[in-house]
Amino acid sequence: xxxxxxxxxxxxxxxxxxxxxxxxxxxxxxxxxxxxxxxxxxxxxxxxxxxxxxxxxxxxxxxxxxxxxxxxxxxxxxxxxxxxxxxxxxxxxxxxxxxxxxxxxxxxxxxxxxxxxxxxxxxxxxxxxxxxxxxxxxxxxxxxxxxxxxxxxxxxxxxxxxxxxxxxxxxxxxxxxxxxxxxxxxxxxxxxxxxxxxxxxxxxxxxxxxxxxxxxxxxxxxxxxxxxxxxxxxxxxxxxxxxxxxxxxxxxxxxxxxxxxxxxxxxxxxxxxxxxxxxxxx
Length: 282
Ligand SMILES: [Cu+2]
What we know:
The chain is α+β, with helices and mostly antiparallel strands. Helix content is 39%, strand content 18%.
C-alpha cells in the first residue's frame, strides 16, 4: 500500500466514526431513544441507565477519537519497518487495573449513590403484606394468567392434571384452588390496582420466557420448574403491554399480554365478576 493510500484509509476511519456519530444523534433527535414514560415506582432504574449511558458514551467517544488519531498519525511510511513488541508487564498491569477500577466505581455509583442495591433488596426481599398477587405462566406462545380469588391464596397445581380444559393443571380438590380465577393462554389480561404493590409469581410450562413491562421497568425471567417473583407499584392509570423478552421460539414476537391499571376498587369489582375455577373445572 502506498503512503497516500494509507493516509486515505486513516482519514476514512475518522470520517466513518464522525458520520456514524452524527447519524446516531440525528436518529435519536428524530425518533427519541428513551423507554416509554415511567408508570411505576422504579425511577432508580432510569437513573442508573442514564448514568451508565453517559459514562460509557464519553469513554466511547474518547477511545474512538484516539483510535482514529493514531491510525491517521502512524499510517504507512515506506521507510519504517514493522517491529515486534515482546510485551510490557507494567503497561499490561496498568491497562488491567484502570478499567477494573472504573467498573468498580460505576458499580459503587449505581449500587450506593443511585439506590441500585436498596432497589434490588426491596424487589427480592420480603413482599408487602397487602400486596396484590397475580400468577403469570408462559407457554409457547402466550401467557396464562391466574388471580388467587377472595382467599388471596393460589391453589395447588400438578403437571399431571394439565389438559386442554385445565391448562395450568389446577388441583380443584384443594380448597385454595376453588376460588382461583384462571385465564387460559391468550385469553387473559393483567388488571392491576393503582398505587398498590403488585406481586408477579412467574412460571413457565415449556422453555424460558421473560415477562417484560417497559412502562414499569419490570423484567423477570420465567424459568420452567421454578416460580420466580418480582414486585412493583403501578403509579399511572392506563393501558400498557407485557411482552416476552426472551427469544423462545418462532411465535416469540406475538407473545404479549394487555395490561390495564385502574383504581383498586374497580379492579376488585372486575375480579368479583369473573368465574372461579370451581365453576370451570367441575
Ligand atoms: Cu416467550
